[in-house]
Hints:
Largest sheet: 5 strands, mixed
Order of helices and strands: HEEEHEEHEHEHHEEHEHEHHHHEHH
Number of helices: 14
Radius of gyration: 23 Å
Number of strands: 12
Distance between the termini: 75 Å
Helix content: 40-55%
Structural class: alpha/beta
Amino acid sequence: MTTRSTPLIGGLAACLGALAVLLSSPAPLHSAEIATALGPVAIAATPRSVAVFDIAAIDTLDRLGVKLSGLPAKLYVPELEPLAKGAKPVGTIFEPDLEALSALAPDLIILGGRSSPRLEAVRRVAPTIDMTILGKDMVVEAKERLSAYGQLFGKTAEAESVARELDAAVAAARAAAAGKGTALVVMTNGPKLSAYGAGSRFGWIHSELGLPPAVDRLSAAANHGEVISFEFIAKANPDWLIVLDRTAAIGESGANAKATLSNDLVAQTTAGRKGQIIYLPPADFYIAAGGASATLRVLERIKGAFQSAS
């Protein structure tokens, strides 16, 4: 009796082990329609090998625990740097390396933002989707991409959990900013200045957080904002300056944002006098805009600054 039970126990253990592996793997997908920047795209099966060129997409997929096979050589966001060790370099965020992609032979390629103009060339290598986040309704788009990735990789529960985190973080930042005055979103690029209004790529700062803009009329069309001067900031007299350092975001050398804004005209504004200048995490806000973890870090920085002024 003892000798007969041993194979049974061994067989049961093997079955349980196989079941554990199966349950830990992404659920298979069959002819699912994934929402992309260019509309719904049918994906026949869960991709096992993925190359991603959009930093926001990389950030969100990493948050969901999706392993990525191909990545840009430069990831910009410090928190993402460890991912490079387990992936093949396949170009830059502007220029995918078609030869490297062909050698990798991924099941799926994800483009977005700066890499999206290369869609036609890249899709000749492997199925490709464009997951660009435009920015005006950034939080909404970020959650749409999050939901699509959850569906695509069998991570629906994880995606829903992260979406709830984003909603809570937006609500907390909005509550912290309530009644604290006007804000002006400014980008420094070395010594140069530009500003972004309510309808711009960074307009979500106003719409999602309920922050009244210090200036009503700013061009929403310019991708790099409306060029301004120190006199413009002085005249606008914002209660808060929310600052993006583009030079730091792209990893170039040059005058940093604090040095650029160390100016008498800025110092005379309400924001300058009260020290109400928020320097956002540059790569999170600019390069990885819409990435789940990046957005949470940006919201945490904003919430903390407003809470400290209470």
